[in-house]
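Final report, closing paragraph on structural work. Over the funding period we assembled a curated collection of sequence-structure pairs, and we close with a single example.
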Amino acid sequence: MGALAYGVDVFPVFQCTDALDDDGYVLKLNSDGTVSKASASDEVFGVNATGVVDYWGNAISPPVEVAVIPTGRGLFVYLQLDPNNLEITIGDKLCVDANTAGVVDKRDGTENTADPIAIALEARAANSGGKILAKLL
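Its predicted structure, as stored:
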């Protein structure tokens, strides 16, 4: 395990068992010390600080090393939003999406019921996807 200097913080580097084409995916820690995209039932470990792509912008096949921003630090990050997201207003709690590992959606208490991991700092229309600025809890 190494480290990546990112701004004024230094984040630990872990081997990831999933391809990560961009930053902002929600990750879990596996029992062998690797990380992978978290599902709604997983305990969230962190968010990848960078994507791992080749010269042409294609995700590199796993395993790959990735810097991980730990959760629970109150950091502001851009998270990957489910393409079929619910409407989100500023202040809504976000959780790992019930249907797609590694991405977030509004915690609505019916479909998306996982523990909240962040608070939305931007509003998003339903089905807009992309990234959303949030504060990690």
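DSSP finds no helices and eleven strands in the chain. The chain has a mean pLDDT of 88. We thank the funder for supporting this effort.
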